[in-house]
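I have been asked to look over a protein record a colleague put together. Alongside the sequence sits a line of tokens, each denoting a local backbone shape. Please read both lines and tell me whether the tokens look consistent with the sequence. I do not need a full report, just your reasoning and any doubts. I have pasted the whole thing underneath without changing anything.
>
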Amino acid sequence: MTTYDTPPQKANDMNNQRSNDPLHGITLEMLLTQLVEQNGWEELGNRIPIKCFTDNPSIKSSLKFLRKTPWARKKVEDLYIASMAGK
């Protein structure tokens, strides 16, 4: 019986690569929910003064606004990244 040395199989490159994006795998809803739990709506409205955080806020209405408003979404994402860096 002859044994052959076979090179180890390369894993799929996509599985081996790690994203440098700190938001990779985190949905906007998860991100917003965590910020609200950590800070509350009032503090969130103080940090990012947008109506969906200051006037009768809810996750649903905030998500609707943030999905349509890239500049506001960017501010929320940046706040989330900053809050995660502080942990």
Summary: The mean pLDDT is 85.
